[in-house]
Design goal:
Helices cover 48% and strands 15% of the residues. The protein is α/β, with parallel strands linked by helices and 322 residues long.
């Protein structure tokens, strides 16, 4: 298995997954351009298969396995988007998918996993419970474990989103990507550093789940303790692998308040007519926070996903008015 993915691994991943994923559109917005004084390009992974960028990494990982590695199926633990992605990628290869999900996972994501043929096993909403349950299932089934982000094939697959963005928008001065476990940010950073060597790579994180920010500042991995954010896709903590890549490539990690996240989500819904989830909105909110740096610059924002529990979203928008 790869250890530290290279840009060449990302190119190979792109060729491997092209027949299965969408090449998502790149949108611009007069509203955000006027707000920043720059040119902002949004990579719309909310319009991706399974509604999130996660299908890129999952497809690359599953299609990198040989038949002997697939015979007992694949296994992961995930709060939702990687869960859906792995279930669908496994279905494409006629393999069983066992998905360990916290019992607090959004119902829309649980339903999607089941719809793609995945077998859902619920656990308590802690990393310890996820890992313990996954180990138990692996011992019982012999399934091949594919980590949501601490996996070089996953990281290489996620890096293909920036590759496509660069092919559409050309050289960029900034790229904003959300960070939870770091698969998207580390993959994006490898692509971005290769294609635009002078680019400023900005990780974007909720203030109430800021372990990546604290890790980045201290230079040492800081555990995630009781994260509390509407951006449920960003509740996981960095791994040694993703952290090592982020330390090497990323300019800074910006944190945003819950109110800023929901406001950014509302702007994108209303102004761009795009449905994004709070995890995507974290990157938009960080871009808005840094708007004074973007005048006359070209910036990219990765809209990481659009799997929304609409009842929760309505409640969040109502709270914004209070």
């Amino acid at each position: 298995m790869l250890s530290f993915p290279s840009y060449q691994n990302i190119e190979a991943a792109h060729e491997r997954i092209k027949p299965h994923i969408h090449r998502t559109p790149v949108f611009t917005s007069r509203f955000f351009n006027e707000m920043t004084g720059g040119n902002v390009f949004f990579k719309c992974e909310n319009l991706q298969r399974v509604g999130a960028f996660k299908i890129r990494g999952a497809t690359n990982a599953v299609f990198s396995l040989d038949k002997s590695e697939l015979k007992n199926g694949v296994l992961t633990h995930s709060s939702g988007n990687h869960a859906q992605a792995l279930a669908l990628a496994a279905k494409w290869r006629n393999a069983k998918a066992y998905i360990v999900m916290p019992d607090t996972s959004p119902q829309v994501k649980v339903n999607a996993v089941k719809g793609y043929g995945g077998e859902v096993i619920f656990c308590k909403p802690t990393l310890e419970a996820r890992e313990e349950t996954a180990r138990k299932i692996q011992n019982e089934t012999g399934a091949t474990f594919i980590h949501p982000y601490d996996h070089p094939h996953i990281i290489a697959g996620q890096g293909t989103a920036f590759k496509e963005l660069f092919e559409e928008a050309g050289r960029l001065d900034f790229i904003f990507a959300p960070v939870g476990g770091g698969g998207l940010l580390s993959g994006t950073s490898i692509s971005a550093r290769h294609l635009c060597p002078e680019i400023k790579i900005i990780g974007c994180e909720p203030k109430d789940a800021d372990d990546a920010y604290r890790s980045f500042i201290s230079g040492n991995l800081v555990p995630s303790i009781n994260p509390n954010t509407s951006a449920d896709g960003l509740l996981t903590a960095l791994s040694e692998l993703t952290f090592s890549i982020i330390k090497k490539n990323v300019e800074e990690i910006v944190t945003v308040e819950e109110r800023e996240i929901i406001q950014a989500m509302k702007w994108v819904w209303e102004r761009m007519k795009l449905i994004i989830e709070p995890s995507s909105a974290v990157a938009v909110a960080a871009m808005v926070l840094k708007k004074d740096k973007l005048k006359g610059e070209k910036a990219g924002v990765i809209l990481s996903g659009g799997n929304v529990d609409f009842q929760k979203a309505i409640k969040l928008f109502e709270e914004l008015q209070d």
